[in-house]
Design brief:
This protein is an alpha/beta fold and about 280 residues long. The chain has a single domain, classed as 3-Layer(aba) Sandwich (Protocatechuate 4,5-dioxygenase, Chain B), CATH 3.40.830.10. The chain is about 35% helix and about 25% strand. Strands 1, 2, 3, 4, 5, 6, 7, 8, 9, 10, 11 and 12 form a twelve-stranded mixed beta sheet that branches. Strand 5 and strand 6 form a beta hairpin. Helix 6 packs across helix 9. The radius of gyration is 17 Å and the shape is globular.
């Protein structure tokens, strides 16, 4: 019998009804100048990116800037998320066969899961790390809407060292390099929000410091800056892994697609920052 990881945050972070969810995703694209109605077409050189993971009302239009660059030649997605509550194993693959959303199920690529687990000693298949976590799940309806059928390798990260980030990033790069098939593509993504519950001014300043290192493709400097400036970037480690992988793959540029915060939607004194970044070969 197939093991299915059910949707944990449908009805809170995004609508639980498929029709309403589809409409909201379309609205995110329609509010986005890079979307289907705009003049930016999908990018064949895209290898990965950074996307936010808040409720769709707040971060969905920002995330849509990245998803507008994808096309249906992409058949696999390696998705690095943060384990906010540190439940279960600290660096966890998913033991499920499928993840479910209101738009259907997404197949977990267990063959590549096992290859990655064999390559990285601290990775473990663990259901608890994924069961109630939203950072990966909220990306799936966007991916389903844009790609249709695709397979997924979700990796949930709690506490790993910078050298373990390097090891995992190198293994992710090797996985992409060694498992290419003619006519198909794999992309890698990190799911992260930026500064949390600061004034808009402080958010813009600290987010700018973090994004400077992301755009420089410098994971060690990113972690150092976050520690030095106390930048509350929740997906710091997934982003560092993404950047280490990008370095191994000789990514040529990182492009900031959008930076905003929750106060842009609803005026508030304390906001959360969001950004989308595209990595291109």
């Amino acid at each position: 019998m197939d093991r299915i990881r059910p949707a944990a945050v449908a009805g809170s972070f995004y609508p639980s009804e498929a029709e309403e969810l589809g409409r909201l995703i379309d609205e995110c694209f329609e509010s986005n100048p890079l979307g289907p109605q705009g003049d930016k077409s999908p990018s064949s050189s895209l290898i990965g990116g950074l996307v936010p993971h808040a409720g769709y009302v707040y971060s969905g239009p920002c995330a849509a800037h990245f998803y507008a660059l994808l096309d249906n030649s992409i058949e696999r997605v390696i998705l690095l998320g943060v384990n906010h509550q540190a439940r279960g194993h600290r660096a966890a693959l998913s033991p499920a066969d499928f993840w479910q959303t209101p738009l259907g199920t997404v197949r977990i690529d267990q063959e590549l899961n096992h290859l990655l687990q064999d390559a990285v000693h601290f990775l473990k298949q663990d259901e608890a790390a994924h069961a109630r976590e939203h950072s990966i799940e909220v990306q799936l309806p966007f991916l389903q809407r844009v790609l249709g059928d695709f397979s997924l390798i979700p990796i949930s990260l709690a506490h790993i060292s910078i050298e373990e980030c390097f090891e995992l990033g190198t293994a992710v790069a090797d996985l992409l390099r060694n498992n290419r098939q003619p006519g198909t593509r794999t992309v890698m993504m990190a799911s992260s929000d930026l500064s949390h519950y600061l004034s808009p001014k402080e958010t813009n300043e600290l987010d700018g410091i973090a994004l400077e290192q992301v755009l420089a493709l410098n994971p060690r400097a990113l972690i150092a800056a976050a520690e030095r400036e106390n930048i509350t970037m929740c997906g710091l480690l997934p982003t560092a892994v993404l950047l280490f992988a990008a370095n191994c793959l000789d990514v040529k540029q990182a492009c900031l697609l959008k930076h905003c915060h929750s106060g842009d939607v609803t005026p508030m004194r304390k906001v959360v920052g969001y950004a989308t970044v595209a990595l291109e070969l």
